[in-house]
């Protein structure tokens, strides 16, 4: 699963390399608007006649991509690193499948680490009860729930949450690396 995702990550990193140099921040509105200069991107890469890439850049998914990844100050991730710093490595691996596979496996491992940051925490599975265990005398019945106490706990929790500051996500924001200009990339 992670290796397939790593292959797609590399594909989109190659496809959109240099996109940051074609972003324009328009400040005439109440809030700044990020615009992608499609003609400049296609022209600098020599792909003006490429129908597939034109349709990808016109799609809603790419518009969402630009609005999400356009801000110059936000939390960076593996995709940003690939687009900004791995340009030469990806170019060098084009004719060398073993190196490409090695890089895909490294990316897959990084994706796995990103999704499982604490691998040492293991959840032990609860074993299934043995056959006939329900007939044993020493098993106590499940206790009855005190509805009044449950309501008290819920009210206490609500009172605490209303007085507490809103929870915020701890993403560390940084300046997004621009990477090399669009003209450096091959037209393949």
Automatic annotation (TrEMBL):
InterPro entries: dDENN_dom, DENN_Domain_GEFs, Tripartite_DENN
Superkingdom field: Eukaryota
GO CC, one annotated term: cytoplasmic vesicle
Any one GO MF annotation of this record: guanyl-nucleotide exchange factor activity
SMART domains: dDENN (SM00801)
Residues covered by the UDENN domain: 1-76
GO biological process, one term: regulation of Rab protein signal transduction
Official protein name in the record: MTMRD protein
């Amino acid at each position: 699963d992670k290796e397939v995702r790593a292959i797609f990550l590399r594909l989109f990193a190659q496809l959109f390399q240099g996109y940051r140099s074609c972003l324009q921040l328009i400040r005439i509105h109440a809030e700044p608007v990020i615009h992608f200069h499609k003609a400049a991107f296609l022209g600098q890469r020599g792909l003006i006649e490429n129908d597939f890439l034109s349709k990808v850049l016109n799609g809603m998914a790419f518009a969402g991509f630009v609005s999400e990844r356009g801000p110059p100050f936000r939390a960076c991730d593996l995709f940003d690193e690939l687009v900004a710093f791995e340009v030469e490595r990806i170019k060098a691996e084009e004719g060398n499948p073993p190196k490409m596979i090695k890089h895909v496996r490294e990316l897959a491992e990084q994706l796995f680490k990103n999704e499982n940051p604490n691998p040492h925490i293991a959840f032990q599975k609860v074993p299934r009860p043995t056959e006939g265990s329900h007939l044993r005398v020493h098993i106590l019945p499940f206790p009855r729930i005190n509805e009044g106490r449950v309501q008290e706990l819920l009210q206490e929790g609500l009172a605490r949450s209303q007085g507490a500051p809103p929870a915020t996500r701890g993403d560390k924001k940084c300046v997004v690396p621009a990477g090399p200009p669009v003209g450096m990339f091959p037209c393949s």
